[in-house]
Amino acid sequence: MKKTYEKPALTKGAQLQAIAAAVYSHDPV
């Protein structure tokens, strides 16, 4: 899914944020 994201850093950051968000949503410790 690298259509809107031209920079790989953004893609990695987006993935990390998505994972973190999912983890926090599932386990908001």
From TrEMBL:
Lineage, broadest ranks: Bacteria, Pseudomonadati, Pseudomonadota, Alphaproteobacteria, Hyphomicrobiales
Annotated protein name in UniProt: RiPP
